[in-house]
Structure formats: structure tokens, C-alpha cells
Amino acid sequence: MPNQELEVIGQDAACCEGLAAAPLGEERAGELAKVFKALGDPVRLRLLSMIASRGESGEVCVCELTPAFELSQPTISHHLKLLRQAGLIDCERRGTWVYYWVLPGVLDQLASFLVTPQSARITA
User: Which runs of E-coded beta strand occur in the chain?
Assistant: First the structure.
């Protein structure tokens, strides 16, 4: 599996602007739609949760992910590929296994995008 360079969403000045800050531009809406589409599938959402909850190591082998589902290994690999293409996770092959981790800051960026000024006041 060759390493591919992934663009992490929200790396510009607009990354900290929430949904209610200003109307989304077409390009930014397209970027976010790809991410939310990837998260819109229950299997992919579970996979991301399993990867993100990996404690200190922060990574998980595909061999640990596959048994949690009643799906074939190629189907799990397809879902992981879609999460990678959305810029949520990355991976590295080590021998016969592939290890996955959540890209730093991506989940925080998504969370900050969804915070509205009103909900920020409530949690503060």
C-alpha cells in the first residue's frame, strides 16, 4: 500500500470558523461533505471510533478491526480506504499487516466546525 499524501481539512484560516460563523463557500462545503459522507455509514463510524479510542499507541492493526464485524476483510478494507480518502485516518504497512491511526487534529476540527456561538456559551 503506497503512502499517499493526504490533505487535512481545515488547514487554512477558516479552519476555526464554525458553521454559524459565515455561509460556507462551495469548495469548503465540498471538502466537508466528503468527510461527513464518510462518517455517514455505521460501519465507517464504528471503525473510526475503534481507531480513535486506541489509548497510548494511537494505532490499531487491521487484524484487530476485522473480527468486530460480520463483513469480509475486503469490505473492511474498502471502508478504511474511504476513511483515508476523506482525510480522517492514515495507515502504514508493516510486514503482512496494516496499522491505522486517526490523523492529528482532524476530529477536533470537525467538532469546532459544528460548535455554534450559542452552544459554546452553554458549555463554557
Answer: 59-61, 89-94, 97-102
Who contacts 98 (Cβ-Cβ below 8 Å, separation ≥6)? 1, 61, 62, 91, 92
Q: Which phi and psi (to 5°) does residue 55 adopt? A: 50, -140
How, if at all, do strands 97-102 and 89-94 pair?
antiparallel
Per residue of the chain (124 residues), what is the pLDDT tens digit? 444 444 444 444 344 466 667 788 899 888 888 999 999 999 999 999 999 998 677 899 999 999 999 999 999 999 999 999 999 999 999 999 999 999 988 888 888 888 776 654 555 5
Rounded distance between C-alpha atoms, residue 35 and residue 52, angstroms:
16
CA distances from 50 to 13, 27, 66, 75, 101 (A): 30, 30, 11, 16, 10
